[in-house]
Design brief:
The complex is a heterodimer of chains A (about 280) and B (about 300). Chain A has about 280 residues and is mainly alpha-helical. Chain A contains 15 helices and no strands. The longest helix of chain A has about 30 residues. Chain B is about 75% helix and about 0% strand. Chain B contains 13 helices and no strands. The radius of gyration of chain B is 25 Å and the shape is flat. The chains are: A mainly alpha (about 280), B mainly alpha (about 300).
Chain lengths: ~280, ~300
Amino acid sequence: MNAAPAVIYRHSWLDTLSAWVLALLWILPLAYAVWTAFHPSDYAIRFDLSAPWTLQNFRNAWEAAPFARYFFNTTLLVIIILVAQMILSTLAAFAFARYEFRGKHIAFALVLVQLMIMPDILLVENYKTMANLGLVDTLFAIGLPYFASAFAIFLLRQTFMGIPKELDEAARVEGASTLQILWRVYVPLAKPVYTAFALVSVSFHWNNFLWPLIITNSVESRPLTVGLQVFSSVEQGVDWSTITAATLMTSAPLLLAFILFQRQFVQSFMRAGIK
Amino acid sequence: MRASSSSIAGSGQRSIHAWLLLLPALVLLVTFTHWPAVATLIDSFYSTPKGVRAAVWVGLENYEVMADDPVFWQAVRNNLWFAAATIPASIGLALLMALWVNERIAGRMWVRMAYFTPTVLPMIAVANIWLFFYTPQYGLLEQVTGALGLPSHNWLGDPRTALACVTLVAVWKEAGFFMIFYLAALQTLNPSLKEAAAIEGASRWYFFRRVQWPLLMPTTLFVLVNAVVNAFRLVDHVFILTRGGPDNATSLLLYHLYEVGFKFWDTAYAAAITVVLVVVLASVALFQFFVLDKKVHYK
């Protein structure tokens, strides 16, 4: 039906060319980083197709800083945050979607506030709170302010509201408890939204920097981003090739996931964006 | 247990259930968002506690210090400049990218991927790569300008160019992210609109201006709010690229807040700066609530 008329607006070759030029410009920094990381440091500043390939830069970086520890910390961190976010926001979203109670609108407004004023801004107060709780310099302290995600609550509430009440009632007649209904009916039906949120959350917290920088000060609790910043600061005197290798290592898991699941990634961001 | 919502006892019980479900999330939200926001406001009227001397009420003194602090004003100017440059540039590029990859151009998947990739990379990692581009003498930018016979320039070391360099990285990082939302919106537009316009003989530019652009308005507003918020939140790259220098030329509000709070440990003054940031973000929230909400309904 729309096959024939669609060609009337034929995009010109100029469009394709410009799109490609911009795409190449956009990927250039990354392509450069890959080039540098896989070649001896003499080639970091001159491009030579005959340059030998090497993994030495990765070895150097890996030995120069406790990256294994950083990887472990970051992985653990994003898992803890994700699990906490999913449990807490599922419960809250269910309450907003399926219950009528006094104070509901105020409670929902309190949730929405966090969409704009994120814990990232309230650094000093949150630091004080963590100090009072004796949690400074722990992984738990990095994650705790993010456990309750307004975004997740909002997203899941929208989804839960779209689930027919009849399913709910049918399960209730079967004698299922509220939590059983939530677990057996609502959560499975919202699976795509959970996947979308998981991708957004993992990539946000894998990349998060300022709060982890402030709340951690030792190798034991530092995530990758903070470790990378410590590693590549000017005083360290490591060469460019090693730094780019470390940089690529830090981004590799997300980058690989993105290349493998490109379609899902893009769609999940789209889904997360449309409210 | 099986409460019928009509009976009074039942609805009371359901109310308790609902609050119990909300409790964990609300406690955390209050602890790490609402209470800190209120506490920050209160703290901004007190002095910084030092050693044995507890904080004392100083009224608006922290704000007076702020008014006289040239670095604060520099950060405000920088941040406004940063916002004024990143917001239109990233949104404009995002729209252009989305229009391109929405067409059936050759290698569309690759192009789309190239645009979006910076979004998934950590800003800290990205800044490392760009740092090399800007490096004097042997950086990539230097090599290009050198090849063109232009004089050598220290891009990040010169107060006149440093902020532009920081801005460029932010635009590069954000444009692909915003593209996704435009792309999503474009794909929901009815294809028959395009056919009708084509049959009527409307030019593509006319079609964009009169049909696509107005229909993309809700998306633009959504992206705009995000871009404004990000303009006051994105500082990670400043840590790697310039540390606010040279001569505070790239100090943004959040970076200045970090320095005051965690390098000089002047928590009272930091509270006052936080209040300014919260007011900015709250204004964006109110704009979203009253303007954007009319276009994109929550229910």
